[in-house]
Amino acid sequence: MENKNNVTEFILHGLTQDKTVAKVCFSLFLVFYATIIVGNLLIVITIKTSEQLNSPMYFFLSYLSVVDISYSTVTAPKLIYDLLVEKKTISFVGCIAQLFAGHFFGCTEIFLLTVMAYDRCVAICKPLHYTSTVNKHVCGWLVAASWVGGFVHSVVQTLLAIQLPFCGPNEIDHYFCDVHPLLKLACTDTYIIGVSVAANSGVISLSCFVVLVVSYAVILVSLRTRSSEGRLKALYTCTSHITVVVLFFGPCIFIYMRPSTTFSADKMVSVFYTVVTPMLNPLIYTLRNEEVKNAMKKLWSRKV
């Protein structure tokens, strides 16, 4: 990772320059991050220790929680720390590492959500073939493919950023390192690289979103022949996943399905998918799922 320019560090503008607002945000995001860690760890522990939660849906959910913890950890601790300091800096290597990790875990989450939609589609549309179609071996391969897909995507994004020459200025108008803010600082024509970034990130986000929409459209069509009780149960199960998909994919498509231009709303939108959504995931999946809540109660009673 050789830096062929005179920039050794970047200065982040952060989320806000107002000290009063920064103190409020510090307390708020500290609570958010603690909720992310505790909530997702609780889901992982509950699923791994409960004999009831052994279906593929909970297998995927446990890995989604691991990714949520990892993804938020890439940006949240640095964001929280920078809210209290005057000069917000990050080294060139640290910036590239943050970019790589952010895209790695973010893209892995996109693929996992798509896999979970496939799981629900098979479970509802072909219940008799579900156990043979989505078995443990298939689940393992799907999760592995999600991690590999996220890694390949992240490597491409990182290579596009590393080759950029930075001559100055070195101020990033963001609270973390991402490709679009770095493209603005490069002292060369970045049009082709910007198109490549949009094609790589945007196509993945949009194509997975289309797959998700089609999967749930198939589910809705198949529910027409079910009884009202079966229909409500299936819809109740899918609503949590649909909510998470909308909350995560909406901001991602807004940020990455466009050329390397920045808007004033980018920071708040980025906060939503890097901090808020990972915090809401455990709440959405636990508050709307009786099986998970009952398993948590049993785990708590056993530990007490």
Walk me through the topology:
Blueprint: E1 9-12, H1 19-49, H2 56-82, E2 89-91, H3 92-125, H4 130-133, H5 136-162, E3 171-172, H6 179-185, H7 191-222, H8 228-256, H9 266-287, H10 290-303
Parallel strand pairs: 1-3
Antiparallel strand pairs: 1-2
GO biological process, one term: adenylate cyclase-activating G protein-coupled receptor signaling pathway
GO molecular function, one term: G protein-coupled receptor activity
GO cellular component, one term: plasma membrane
Describe this structure in words.
By secondary structure, the protein is an all-alpha fold. It has a single domain (9-303), classed as Rhopdopsin 7-helix transmembrane proteins, CATH 1.20.1070. Helices cover 75% and strands 3% of the residues. The chain has helices at 19-49, 56-82, 92-125, 130-133, 136-162, 179-185, 191-222, 228-256, 266-287, 290-303, and strands spanning 9-12, 89-91, 171-172. The protein has a 3-stranded mixed β-sheet. Helix 2 runs antiparallel to helix 3 and helix 2 (56-82) runs antiparallel to helix 9 (266-287). The longest helix has 34 residues, at 92-125. The chain starts with 8 loop residues before the first strand and ends with a helix. 39% of the residues are buried. The mean pLDDT is 85.
Number of helical elements? 10
Helix/strand/pairing category: mainly alpha
So, CATH architecture? Up-down Bundle
Mean pLDDT comes to 85
Task: Provide the helix percentage.
Answer: over 70%
What order do the strands of the largest sheet run in, or round the barrel if closed? 2-1-3
Largest sheet: 3 strands, mixed
Morphology:
globular
Topology-level CATH name: Rhopdopsin 7-helix transmembrane proteins
How many strands in all?
Answer: 3
* SSE arrangement, N to C: EHHEHHHEHHHHH
Give the low-confidence spans. none
Radius of gyration: 21 Å
CATH-defined superfamily: Rhodopsin 7-helix transmembrane proteins
Q: What would you call the quaternary organization?
A: single chain
Please indicate the count of domains.
1
**Alpha carbon gap, first and last residue:** 50 Å
